[in-house]
Amino acid sequence: MTPLLAAASHTATNPGPLILLGILAAAGYMLHCVIWPYRACPKCRGAGRFLAPSGRAWRYCNRCSGRGAQLRTGRRIWTHIKNTDRNRRDK
Ligand SMILES: [Zn+2]
Fold first, then answer.
1. CB-CB contact of 58 with 39 (8 Å)
2. Interatomic CA distance for residues 46 and 57, integer angstroms
3. Rounded CA gap, 58 and 36, in Å?
4. Is 24 contained in some domain?
5. Residue 28: inside a domain, yes or no?
6. Are 53 and 75 in contact (CB under 8 A)?
7. Domain region containing 43
8. Would you say the pTM of this structure is higher than 0.90?
9. Measured in angstroms, how far is the CA atom of residue 19 from the centroid of ligand 1?
10. What b/e readout covers 68-86, taking b as 16+ CB neighbours within 10 angstroms?
11. How far does the centroid of ligand 1 lie from the alpha carbon of residue 38, in Å?
């Protein structure tokens, strides 16, 4: 086996850097969700309401109930983990 081929097969079978990169990305996303728990509602784009074509009437967004913000999935997971740890400590 030539050294070049050996190096290529070594990198193809070693998933260590990819796993490390995935863990770092997940940790970064969780930190992002702790600092900024809300995102703009994708349906109303953060406005919280929709204007009528006339521009003189409006209604609240059904998905975010007019708040314009939605809780991120990562923040829900973080809150669930936090509550689970708290329950364990109490018992
Ligand atoms: Zn909305």
1. no
2. 18
3. 28
4. no
5. no
6. no
7. 38-91
8. no
9. 36
10. bebebebbeebeeeeeeee
11. 12
Provide the 10 A C-beta neighbour count for residue 38. Answer: 15
- In this predicted structure, what is the pLDDT of residue 84? 86
Residues of the chain with pLDDT under 70: 1-12, 86-91
Tell me how far the alpha carbon of residue 68 lies from the centroid of ligand 1, in angstroms: 5
Q: Classify residue 18: in a domain, yes or no.
A: no
Q: Does the CA dihedral 68-65-29-88 come out positive or negative?
A: positive
50-71, pLDDT tens digit by residue? 999 998 999 999 999 999 999 9
Query: How remote is the CA of residue 63 from the centroid of ligand 1, in Å?
Result: 5
Cα of 57 from ligand 1 centre, angstroms: 17
Radius of gyration of the chain (CA): 23
Count up the domains in the chain and report the number.
Answer: 1
Residue 12 lies in a domain: no
Measuring CA to CA, how many Å separate 77 from each of 21, 33, 48, 49, 65?
20, 10, 24, 28, 22
